[in-house]
Design brief:
CATH topology of the largest domain: pyruvate-formate lyase- activating enzyme
Radius of gyration: 22 Å
Number of strands: 15
Number of domains: 3
CATH class of the largest domain: Alpha Beta
Shape: globular
């Protein structure tokens, strides 16, 4: 079969990263002998997408998207439906998985892939190729051709051995724009960075995270050798110099991390890397080995300085977590490992005292990059169900860019604080860390010089920057707006 895969792209204040989800699907399809094309598309700028797909003449079109990209995916879907009315359409990803019936109806899709999609899409293609019904294909809901009714076939078992998956099909996209600075390691602006997933599944139960809806609660890990093989391939193929591991918790299994670091060191690839960790997973000897293997930054979801709030968010169970947080950041400073700390405000039961404790802790631990987010109730999370039940969220609120956890101007929910008051609190806290976040590394200063030069090439951008600055009072919005414009230049103007 000839399969077109479209990822709906949305900027969320940072560099856009390659769509690993559809790249994995594409790689599995190619391995099985199918012909595949990929688009990482923004309907406002990817104006040639219809003609490019016409030239390819697909037998199937599939969409992948997150909640924040819902409207853009819908725009692309409606655009393509007009031109390819006889071609089957499918959707997959987190949002379609947790809102399958709604997505199917609004997108007029023929099927929705639920959860992990690699094995499911192979079976779907086999059925479609033989012009057979999708009845019995586990891992989908579909529309019965005769009755028009929506049928759910049930979930598919997770892939037990992730080493059986081929590397993501990066060759199907022009990787050049993704490899230009700033890169995905926030606050560490360098070129030729990309992303890798070493495993799937997370055993923790944070109320704001929905990754389990796709990958489950049981952690599965690729072998350390398989991961380093991918790094070596990327180094040779794309001259990759930096890797960000987008696993929920990279350091979850210390023995695996040790094996990975030793293999990476033995191959002498000289790769700098970063990933996400937890404050209870910072063993000093392991951290030294990670540093030796090329670790430059660890990201920590600190979330709050209030022990009470940490329990509300599902981050409890570690005793005095605040003490562990302080010790982890101290250790990273001693080993010269950069840190990123994220915090969440606007939580259930939160008081001004809780937020002050969060601000005080953020100032005390002195992370190299600090970000404050509003609690965002993504569908599929516990907080989403709580928000609907308690009336904290308008159930008719459209899914769109306003769900971006990083850059909404006001929080989606109103719980214990007025929305505008919470916006002003976040502004004060985020502005406090502007210099530390952006201007402490010479490489960053050089990059942000490039960003500000955009104003001279595109003077209209300054009006957008000033408008957002006046409206929000957040200095970092200037950088984020320029960064978004820079991404458009990278991809659409060959900057």
């Amino acid at each position: 079969m000839r399969v077109t895969l479209v990822n709906a792209q949305v900027l969320d204040g940072n560099n856009v990263i390659p769509p690993l989800g559809v790249m994995y699907i594409a790689a599995v399809l190619e391995k099985a002998g199918h012909k595949v094309q990929i688009f990482d598309a923004d309907p406002q700028y990817d104006t040639n997408i219809v003609s490019d797909i016409k030239s390819f003449n697909p037998d199937l079109i599939g969409f992948g998207f997150l909640t924040v990209a819902y409207q853009r995916a819908l725009t692309l879907n409606n655009m393509l439906k007009k031109e390819f009315s006889s071609v089957p359409f499918g959707c997959g990803g987190v949002h379609p998985t947790v809102k399958p019936a709604e997505t199917m109806n609004e997108f007029d899709a023929d099927f929705i892939v639920l959860g992990e999609g690699e094995q499911t899409i192979l079976e779907v293609c086999e059925k479609l190729e033989k012009k057979e019904s999708l009845a019995g294909v586990n891992g989908i809901i579909y529309r019965d051709r005769e009755s028009g009714k929506i049928v759910e076939n049930g979930r598919r078992e997770m892939i037990p051995d992730l080493d059986t998956l081929p590397f993501p099909a990066r060759h199907l996209l022009d990787m050049t724009p993704y490899l230009k600075p700033p890169g995905i390691i926030r606050g560490y602006a360098t070129k030729n960075q990309t992303t890798i997933m070493t495993g799937r599944g997370c055993p923790f139960r944070c109320i704001y995270c929905g990754s389990h809806t796709i990958f489950g609660r049981k952690t599965r890990r690729r072998s350390a050798k398989n991961v380093v093989d991918e790094i070596e391939f990327l180094h040779k193929t794309y001259d990759i110099k930096g890797i960000y591991f987008c696993d929920d918790t990279f350091t979850l299994r210390p023995e695996w991390v040790k094996e990975f670091c030793e293999d990476l060191i033995s191959r002498r690839l000289d790769i700098k890397w970063g990933g996400q960790s937890r404050v209870d997973q910072t063993d000093v000897e392991l951290m030294k080995l990670m540093k030796k293997s090329g670790l430059v930054q660890l990201d920590f979801g600190v979330e709050s300085g209030s022990e009470r709030m940490l329990k509300v968010l599902g981050k409890g169970g570690l005793g005095d977590r605040s003490d562990k947080i302080r010790k982890s950041f101290e250790l990273c400073r001693e080993l010269d490992i950069r840190t990123l700390a994220t915090f969440i405000i606007g939580n259930p039961e939160e008081t001004k005292e809780d937020i002050q404790q969060t601000f005080d802790l953020a100032k005390e631990i002195k992370a190299d990059y600090t970000a404050f987010y509003f609690l965002t109730p993504y569908p599929g999370t516990e907080i989403y169900d709580m928000a609907i039940k308690n009336g904290w969220l308008d159930p008719k609120l459209p899914f769109s860019e306003i769900w971006a956890h990083r850059q909404p101007e006001v929080p989606l929910m109103q719980i214990t604080f007025d929305r505008e008051d919470l916006r002003d609190i976040r502004k004060k806290m985020q502005n406090h860390f502007f210099t530390r976040n952006y201007l402490r590394r010479s490489g960053n200063v050089n990059f942000y010089g490039i960003l500000f030069s955009i104003i001279f090439r595109h003077p209209k951008v300054i009006l957008e920057v000033l408008n957002k600055l006046i409206r929000t009072g957040r200095i970092d919005y200037v950088v984020e707006t320029l960064n978004a414009e820079y991404w458009k230049m990278k991809k659409y103007e060959a900057a």
